[in-house]
Specification:
PH domain-containing protein, PH-domain like, 32% strand, alpha+beta, transmembrane helix, 3-stranded antiparallel sheet, 127 residues, elongated, membrane, transmembrane
């Protein structure tokens, strides 16, 4: 009887250890994939508008013409503030959910990009 309860306790302990190991591996894999994706975001601002490329294996390119931009927002959550990062949100003309985000920019670069794109929009409105 005592041997049975000890064996049952060891089996229960191995399940908990296996679950903890699986959870740890899942978190490590998610952090690794997130850091890889973070490194592969590029943007280009020219006279026509903003181009954004994301991804390494599966690349996604987005082009936002300057004349479609309605307004610009900077978002900074607690983790981004701690790392001096920001997310630029570009709201475009169109449907209610038309927005493009450029995540995890350096905070100074995000402000500079917002200001440059904002001036470009103002020039287009004046013309």
């Amino acid at each position: 009887m005592v041997l049975g309860s000890v064996a049952f306790g060891l089996a229960d302990l191995s399940r908990v250890a296996g679950g903890a190991l699986g959870l740890g591996l899942g978190v490590a894999l998610g952090a690794w994939l997130g850091s890889r994706q973070f490194r592969h975001v590029a943007w280009l601002l020219d006279e026509d508008g903003l181009a954004i490329r994301r991804g390494r294996m599966w690349q996604r390119e987005t082009r936002v013409p300057a004349n479609r931009v309605q307004h610009l927002d900077l978002n900074r959550g607690p983790w981004q503030r701690r790392r001096n990062l920001a997310t630029l949100v570009i709201h475009t003309a169109g449907t209610r959910h038309s927005s493009v985000t450029v995540p995890h920019l350096d905070a100074d670069d995000a402000q500079r990009l917002r200001d440059l794109l904002g001036r470009q929009i103002d020039r287009d409105d004046d013309a």
